[in-house]
Write a structure and sequence with these properties.
Blueprint (H helix, E strand, L loop, with lengths): L2 H19 L5 H20 L12 H14 L15
Helix pairs in contact: 1-2
Amino acid sequence: MTDDARLRARTDDLENALRIAHDRVGPDVVSDVETAVGSVRERLALGVDHTVVALAGGPARASRACSTRSRGSRSRTSGSGVRRRPR
């Protein structure tokens, strides 16, 4: 199963769980889950092959922020400060 298919299945499961628990959870939970599911579906509709990342701040801040975000993701990334060969 591809990452795309796994994410779609997990999103469907979350939406189904919300349908089942809708009357048992607070309106803030319902709103948060609906927003999250909507955001995931919008992102999936754009495609999963490319991601745009924008960094702001000076080089030291950008490097630190990037390495922090990379640790939180599940995808493989190169470490911060890694030099790449020029093309």
